[in-house]
Design goal:
Chain A is mainly α and about 170 residues long. Chain A has six helices and no strands. Classes of the chains: A mainly alpha (about 170), B mainly alpha (about 475). At the A-B interface, α4 and α6 of A face α4, α5, α6 and α8 of B.
Chain lengths: ~170, ~475
Amino acid sequence: MIALFWICALVAIASGIWTISSRQPVHSVVGLIVNFAALAVLFLTLNADFLAMMQIIIYAGAILVLFLFVIALLTIGAQPIEQGPGRLAFQAAPSVVAGLAALLVMSAGLRVAWSQSASAPVLDLGSVATFGQQLLTTHVFAFEVTAFILLIAIVGVILMAGRKELRF
Amino acid sequence: MTIQGVNFDFGILGPISVLVITGLVVLLVDLVGRAVPRVVLYGIGVAGCAGAFIALAPLYGRSATTVNGAFATDRFSWGFSAVLIFTLAVTLLLSSLRNADDGNSPASYAALLIFCTIGGLIMAGATTLIGIFLGIEELSLALYVLAGTGYPRPASEEAALKYVLLGSLASGFLIYGSALLYGSAGSVSLSALSAAASSLPLLFVIGFGLLLVGLAFKLALSPFHLWTPDVYEGSPIAITAYMTVAVKAATFAVLARFVYTVFGHDSVALVPLWLLAIFSMLVGSFGALRQRNLKRLLAYSSIAQAGFMVVALSGVGEYGLSSLLFYLVAYALMNLGAFAVIAMLGDGDEAYADIDAYRALFYRRPWVAVALTLFLFSLAGIPGTAGFYGKVLLLEQGFAGGPWGIALALALIAGSIVSIYVYFQVVWAMFVPQEGEQPVTAGNSWLTWVPVAVGVAGVVALGVIPQVFVSIVSSSM
């Protein structure tokens, strides 16, 4: 189990770096798919079956395919990014600082979680049955509101796309 | 009623249910009818607001939860919900003007506005971190689209883009903070968090800090206010009016519930909030000094006003919540009134956003000029208006709230003095006679006279007989 964790963790970190460092947007998407797959395995080791499945089906499946479509649509006939001037040069230093701050926050969180010697996760906490039960009883309000948010997104898209002249 | 172990109280969910039905009816009417005039669609929306008020009225002074404790009606939600529904009605009225932008799709526009308000009501009543986050997302998602309905005005597209990018960043802070808070308490309900708040473990402090950043973004508290002037200036005028009041009302409901339920007493962890407030009061007041565009000026003023409202929470005193609510009601009346005047003069257009257009307004449209003067006096806190008594209540909370409360109260006084000069500039422009050619003033729709008249009546009533309203507000708790 420990070996599996280390392999997946290293794959996740490596693919994450690949995602942000590759020049081709399509390569970034592939890197992200690998990252999500590694994450899904990590979820499985934590007994979170449902989360692992959703990670694969929704993120790796649906959302990244959407990314590919968007990249394919937007980069038709576009110059590769590296040919232009480095427009994000100014942002490098602040984003490194912000990233380090985030790392500090995360490590502080981890340290606390470690020191509490938290009880082992309940075995069936992440199973599909428990999740469904919780979703439709304890969290049914959030469930309904989420459905409503999707409706808002649809109406919003219709409002934006239904303008008299559509342009890209 | 209990279904599968979940109790539903449709009385508590009443206002939300009425607005959901209203939004869907608006969409369906547009679908079935051909070219339904927008006055009809917005009229359905206003009728829905009336219905929501009727559903809200029996909840006055009641305290109960439903949907297994995930949604509540209590002292935190009633007053804020009433302000939200009122704001929605005013915004719909302002949107029905002839030149008002609605993205060429009045039904989607009205439905989004209504859904947006439902998000605000959810924020006001949600008792879990999940519910609060979903409410904020619902409110924000609809507003991102609405900010861009001034298309093809480039400023409106800029506003939508800026709002969606920075708003998403703020949501990131919110969700990450919520996750850490959940980790510190082991539960998403706010009442369970209070145990962690009393011992302040590191995880809780970091989580609360991130959550505060997210909320400060939504409230436009300085230094997280940088998007505010551009977004408020670029959005259609009715949407700007809505954003200045509704987003603040809903987010303050969340903040107040958090401060009172989770902390319940003054805490070290709240110091960043006080610092944000002091900073906002100064930045907002001084930033407004140089503005030549009235929408932008009111944007900076709303930054300062958000800081003022935080003073009510200082010291987490017994009467803090009612002071906050009183000031919020006053703010809603005077701010919506001022925006209604701008919208009325331009007939829903942006023509009257520039201060120069108000030169010698008194000699062309005396009643409009007098109404706007009253709203601006109230925003400045001149005695006899709602804003004055509101600030007195806030100062009372501040001076009773320990050293930080006194610092906040002093910042409030400083900010108010600066803002008096800001608002007087506009009033001065309206009352000084001007030689030569004067711009023609358009627009005199009776629809906008309704919010202006309600605003004037409210500002005067809250200023002259505030005790009546204070007792109404405090017995809703």
